[in-house]
Amino acid sequence: MTGTTGARGQAAAVRTEEETVTGVEHARTPASTSSPAGAGPDPTAAKQPPTGTPETSTLSLPVQVAQNDESEVSQESAGYSPHAPDVLHEATLEQLRKLGSDSFPSVQEVVDLYNALPDTRKRRDPLHSLAWRIGFRWQSGSWPALPGSGRKGRSEPQAPHGVGTSASGLIAELRAAASHGRVSLNEWQQANYQTVEPALSPFVTRPGCSFIPSGDHVRAALVLPRGKDGTLSPTALSIIMEGFAAIAHEAHTVISQMNTMVHPDISPEQMRAMITPEIAGVFPEIASFLNRADQSSSVDVNTPLQGMIRRTFQNGNATITLLLDPSEPIKLRESRVRQLTIAVNLVEKAGFKLPDMEFYFPKYGRRVQALPGEGFATNPLEPTWAGVAQFLAPKQIAVSPESVGALERVRLDGGRFHAVGMQFREQGVGVLIHELGHLLHYANNRSRYIDAASSHFTPSAAATARILSEYAGSGPTEFVAEYFLGLVMGKTFTPEQDRMYDALGGARPPYPAAQTALQLQSDQLRHLTLEVNSQLVRRGDLRTRPADLIRTTYERLPRDLKSSYTELIAEAIADILKSESAGQMGVS
Known about the structure:
Structural class: alpha/beta
Oligomer: single chain
Number of strands: 13
Number of domains: 4
Shape: globular
Distance between the termini: 54 Å
């Protein structure tokens, strides 16, 4: 369960793909004239005149200097002491080197770009600011319409304000904004924020943002310049990692408050009488309450994170860490670990290579209460953790004990399920594979994961996703996790779903899937035979089908159906048998 959603706002400035890849990347560069360490030789050195030797063109306020124009304008009449062309040229080159530019303007091109700046800028801006503006125009293609240049003019975006022009400046302003709660973004920065990697743009949009709330590292990083290929820069990714650490800390704080409470008026005998098999299935965590250290207490809470048992296993080259609650009953703990083992094995059999992972198993994942005359229920008046499991980047999955309980199956019109995992025999295993899909999405392509998590689907992409499941249509990262679960379990997809999964950065298996046949155990076959015949009777077919026929029909089913719960498998087999029976009657 990850990702963000929201209403899409139209970008204030419409950008072409070229502008997305270049202009956004370079729009927020530190205003500095010092050469970066390791900048290397100047690729335009042959074009530069000797230091201190001015060219014949002089930078002036009112005049655009054409090529080979040797006219000058009096500095006194302009009201401005212009920088020598070679000085401004060198400062511009320094800015472009910092941007990683692979093309550089000549001195005359710098003169042309300077003369196109507003007069107020030329009068008031210091050298480094002028060089930044010229460098941005050169790099982004925001050229003036120069005579004979063959270039179409473009309007220059407003200079940055409200947010600093570097990652460090941005973070500094965010921290300083704590007193008033946010940092405002101008039109140019809002357009940067709405930019996504080009591969994602046919499928997702990002809602508009006019300000960054204090401490919101993810939004702050999305304003920063991107790489030339449209990916998030290493600086942006490092800032987002800070944000993910804060999100994980907040989640851990919420989870630590989850508990089970039994009203003091309920005696131990009455409480045990309330715990029917059905209640124990819906609320498996009640076993932890019965096992609490202080038997006189009416409330039991999660063990703090630092008090959890840490167990580490090597799985090939990957390290798997389990965080287990020492006060959870061993039987319940083992059933949860068994589910995880099944999920990991299924993912590996599908051909995937797993990265390092951490699984956090708190004994309570929600607030459960028992009241006189009402029995056990979740507490609707207290905040709760919002899921059976949650991926916390970069590598942790927190899992509630609900995963081993009786989870609800929601089937919609047309036979679709609300979530892909609801189709399968053990929904808890499906939940874990879904969350592993988030983890591998992040490990496979961090930049696209972040873009997807902070965006929402276009209407057509959402419709494509909902063919898979209703939950898949709720957001790009949820679609990737639902697709991943289907991929592991053997589902088939539409070509558009395949394209969307790859564009969003979903992981593909580097190894071929293991060809393992799903065999029915004798007890499973017995139950399935009874269920198929029951369904046929309800359809008016009173002939009893033998177990051997049920087995051979089962073997013809798609792989994902073979992993489904008994009633769904029986429904598919009954459909086949009923259809074939009708066909035989028609032939005779």
